[in-house]
Structure formats: structure tokens, C-alpha cells
Amino acid sequence: MDLAFWDSSSLVRLCVRQNGSSAAEVLNARYAKTVWWGSPVEIQSAIARLLCMGQITPNGRVQGQVALDRLRRGWREIEPSDAIRDKAETFTGRFPLTAADALQLSAAWVWCTGKPRNRPFISGDIRLIDAARELGFKAMEA
Questions:
Q1: Fewest CB atoms less than 10 Å from the CB: which of 13, 20, 34, 142?
Q2: Domains of the chain, start order
Q3: What number of CA atoms fall less than 13 Å from residue 106's CA on the CB side?
Q4: What per-residue confidence (pLDDT) applies to 21?
């Protein structure tokens, strides 16, 4: 199985059934996961928002948590570092990204040791996909 960097928006689609879940499941069968250290917090937040917006039921939230716990056992996390923070600061000035997305992209940059050419990057966020492609990643939507 090839290794890819997965951002939290793509992982949410593996935890909770929504638009993009089918594409995420196809990619899940092909790519092992490397993720940013903060991804579990972002995923928990997304699941809670979906519940508050009525897009999932309380049972759906529990199922999402169970799926997240299962995913966590198999992924590799990129830990926080000064290099990630510094790169994220650069990316916020270069791309129209939120701070969290800039940290995701920076973690991917560190994961590939600054050589993103054709390295798989999986996301559900089009702005993040565009930024990753501009850097040279093989960015795919999930």
C-alpha cells in the first residue's frame, strides 16, 4: 500500500458518511495514512459541528468516533515542530488558507522532506488541494 498525506477533511469523510465519502473509501483502500498531529482535534470538531447542524444523529456521532479510533491505530502522525510552524506562516502569506490548513500543508511538507513532487496528498478542501498542487504534490480530492 502506498503512503499518502491525508488532511483532516478527507479523514472526516471516512468517519462520517457524507459527500465525498465514496471517493475517500476508494483512496483509503489504496493509500496508508500520514496525518498532522492536530488532525484528531479537527476531526472531532467537524463531527460535533455535523451533529449541531443536524447532518448526523447522536448515534452517527458515536459511529464517527469509533471510526476515528480505528483509523488512529493505523496512521502515522507528524508531530509539531518549529519547522512546521515556520512553514505554515509562509504558506498563510502565499495561499488563501486557514491557519489549520496551513499547518496541514506544512506537516505534509515536512513529511516529504520538502520534496513534494508527485507525493500523494489527499484532501476534501479545494483550496488546500490547489495549494498542494502548486507546491508539486499529487493532490487528490476525497
A1: 20
A2: 2-141 (3.40.50.1010)
A3: 26
A4: 83
